[in-house]
Specification:
mainly alpha; globular
Length: about 550
C-alpha cells in the first residue's frame, strides 16, 4: 500500500463516496415503504444522540492521528507512528466503553423525559454498540489517512454500506410485526452489522500494512548493522534508555491537546444537531402539530430531504479528508505555494461539481421526491434547501483547511455562532403555525450560510487565500443556462415514463454545463490529466 497524491487520494475517496451515496439511497427509498415516514422519524431521532457521543469519542482523535502521523511519516519516524496509533487506540477504547455504559444507563430517562416520542427506546438500545465499533474504526481510518493511503477507508466504507443496506431492510421487515418502534430498531441493528463489516476490512488492511512496515524496518536495521560493524559495541548502544510507559506520556498529552479543540468544534455542531431535533419537535408541538405528524415531518426532513442535498458531499468529504494531511505536510515545510494550490483545487472542485446538483434539486424537486419516495408533498422542503447546497459543499474544505493550519479554535467559534443563531431561529420560527417545519428549514439555511462565510473569512485572513470572483460568475451563468436546457428537455416529455424524462433532462443539462465549463476555461485539459488512470488519454 503506497502513499497517494492529494488528487489521487481525493478521487479514490470520491469514487467510494459516490458508490456509497448511490447504494445508500436503496434503504432511503425502501425504508419509508416498509416502516413509513413515521418509522423513519423514529429511526432518525436516535441519530442526534449517537452523533453527540461519537463526537466525544472520535471528534478530534482521528484528525489528530492523521495530522500527526503525516508529520511523522514526512520525517521517516516509524516508531513515532506506532506510539501515536497505540495511544490513540487506548484513549478511544476507554472513552467508548465509559460512554457506552453511561448511554445505556441513561436511555430510559432520555427517551421518556427529553424526547417527545418515547417509542425511540428500542432504537436507542440497538445503536449502543456503535460507540465502540465506530470509535475503533475511526482510529484505523485516521492512521491510514495520515499515511495518505485512502484505499482502506474507501474499501471499509463501501463494504459497510452494502452490509448495512441488506441487514437494515431485512431486520426492519422482520421486526415490524412487533410494532413500528421495533421496525425502526431493526433498521438501526442493520447499521451495527454494517459497521462491524467495515471494521473487519480495516483490521485486515492494518495487518497487511504492519507486515510491510516490519519488513522495511528489518531491512533498514540490517543495513545499519553492516555500516556500523567496525564501531565498538559500547558506542553503538544508546546513551540513555527511556522506558516505553514514560515515552507515551508526551504522546498522549499532545494527542489530547491536538484533538480537544477539534472535538470542541465538532461537539458544538453535534450538540446543535441534538438540540435541533429536540427543539424542532417541541416547536412543532407548540405550533399545534400532533406528535405523530411532528415525528413524520422531522423524519421526512432528516431521512429524505437532507440525504438528497448531501449527495455531492461525497466529493467534499473526500477533499476534506485528503486536504488535512496534505496541508499539514505543506505547513510543516513552510510551503505556502502548495497550501494555496491545494486550497484552490479543493474549492474549485467543490464549486464546479456541486453547482449542477443545486440546479437539479431546485428545478426537479417534485419528480425527484415522487420517484424516490412516493411522497411528493415533501418536495417544497427540497426546493427551500437547494440554494444553500453550494454553501454546504464549500464548507467542508474550508473547515478542513482551518484544522490543518492549526486554527481549530477559529472553526470552533464559527460553528458556535452559527449554532446559537440556528437554535434561536428554530424556537422562534418553527413554533409559528403559519411556518411549522419550514421555520426550521429557514433556521438551518441561515446557519449553513453564516458558518461557511465565517470559515471563508478566517481562511483568507490566515493564509491570504482568494478566488477570482469571475469564476463564481461563470459558474452561476452556466447554472442558469443548464437549468433552461434541462427544463426545455423535461417539458418535451419525449419518453413515456417520468423517470426516463428526468434522466434525459438531467443528462442534457449536465452535458451543456460541462461544455460551458470547458468553453469558459473553468475546466481544462490539465485538470483532466490529473485524473488517475484516465488522465493519460488527455495528455498531448
Amino acid at each position: 500500500m503506497t502513499k497517494q497524491s492529494f488528487i489521487k487520494g481525493a478521487l479514490i475517496l470520491l469514487l467510494a463516496g459516490i458508490v456509497n451515496r448511490i447504494l445508500a439511497f436503496v434503504p432511503r427509498i425502501a425504508l419509508p415503504r416498509i416502516i413509513g415516514a413515521e418509522g423513519v422519524g423514529l429511526y432518525q431521532l436516535g441519530y442526534p444522540f449517537l452523533i453527540v457521543l461519537l463526537t466525544l469519542i472520535t471528534g478530534g482523535i482521528p484528525l489528530a492521528v492523521a495530522k500527526w502521523i503525516a508529520e511523522a511519516e514526512s520525517k521517516g519516524d516509524s516508531k513515532r507512528v506506532k506510539q501515536i496509533f497505540r495511544s490513540a487506540m487506548a484513549l478511544t477504547v476507554l472513552l467508548s466503553l465509559l460512554l457506552t455504559g453511561l448511554f445505556v444507563w441513561l436511555t430510559p430517562w432520555i427517551t421518556t423525559r427529553l424526547m417527545t416520542d418515547p417509542r425511540v427506546y428500542q432504537t436507542f438500545l440497538m445503536m449502543s454498540p456503535l460507540l465502540l465499533i465506530i470509535g475503533i474504526s475511526s482510529v484505523y481510518r485516521g492512521y491510514f489517512q495520515g499515511k495518505q493511503n485512502m484505499i482502506p477507508t474507501a474499501l471499509s466504507q463501501t463494504l459497510e454500506t452494502v452490509i448495512r443496506i441488506v441487514f437494515a431492510l431485512l431486520f426492519a421487515k422482520w421486526l415490524l410485526p412487533y410494532g413500528l418502534a421495533w421496525g425502526a430498531a431493526g433498521a438501526m441493528l442493520g447499521v451495527v452489522v454494517g459497521e462491524i463489516g467495515g471494521l473487519v476490512v480495516l483490521l485486515w488492511q492494518y495487518a497487511i500494512d504492519r507486515k510491510r512496515v516490519k519488513l522495511a524496518i528489518i531491512r533498514e536495521e540490517s543495513v545499519t548493522e553492516l555500516a556500523s560493524s567496525d564501531i565498538p559495541s559500547a558506542a553503538a548502544k544508546p546513551r540513555f534508555h527511556i522506558p516505553f510507559h514514560k515515552r507515551r506520556v508526551p504522546v498522549m498529552r499532545r494527542l489530547i491537546s491536538l484533538s480537544v479543540p477539534v472535538t470542541g468544534s465538532r461537539m458544538i455542531g453535534s450538540l446543535s444537531y441534538l438540540l435541533e431535533s429536540i427543539l424542532t419537535a417541541r416547536a412543532l408541538l407548540a405550533a399545534g402539530i400532533a406528535v405523530g405528524a411532528a415525528t413524520s415531518q422531522y423524519g421526512a426532513l432528516q431521512g429524505m430531504i437532507v440525504p438528497i442535498l448531501l449527495l455531492p458531499t461525497a466529493l467534499t468529504y473526500s477533499l476534506a479528508v485528503s486536504l488535512v494531511p496534505s496541508l499539514s505536510e505543506a505547513a510543516a515545510k513552510g510551503d505556502r505555494a502548495t497550501i494555496h494550490k491545494r486550497l484552490h483545487q479543493s474549492m474549485r472542485l467543490s464549486l464546479v461539481t456541486g453547482a449542477p446538483f443545486v440546479v437539479v434539486m431546485l428545478l426537479f424537486a417534485e419528480p425527484l421526491c415522487r420517484i424516490l419516495y412516493d411522497h411528493v408533498e415533501i418536495a417544497p422542503m427540497l426546493q427551500w434547501m437547494a440554494p444553500v447546497g453550494l454553501f454546504i459543499y464549500l464548507q467542508a474544505p474550508l473547515q478542513a483547511a482551518l484544522q490543518a493550519l492549526d486554527k481549530p479554535t477559529t472553526a470552533l467559534l464559527n460553528t458556535f455562532i452559527g449554532a446559537v443563531v440556528k437554535l434561536v431561529l428554530i424556537v422562534e420560527l418553527a413554533s409559528n403555525p403559519s411556518l411549522g417545519i419550514y421555520g426550521a428549514l429557514i433556521a438551518i439555511n441561515v446557519n449553513i450560510v453564516l458558518v461557511t462565510a465565517l470559515h471563508w473569512i478566517a481562511v483568507v485572513r490566515s493564509v491570504g487565500f482568494s478566488m477570482d470572483l469571475l469564476d463564481f460568475l461563470k459558474v452561476g451563468a452556466a447554472m442558469f443556462i443548464m437549468g433552461a436546457a434541462s427544463l426545455w428537455v423535461m417539458n418535451l416529455q419525449a419518453l413515456p415514463a417520468l423517470w426516463h424524462n428526468l434522466i434525459l433532462a438531467c443528462t442534457a443539462g449536465i452535458v451543456v454545463y460541462l461544455v460551458l465549463m470547458v468553453m469558459m476555461r473553468i475546466i481544462d485539459r490539465y485538470d483532466a490529466e490529473r485524473i488517475p488512470y484516465l488522465g493519460r488519454w488527455f495528455k498531448s
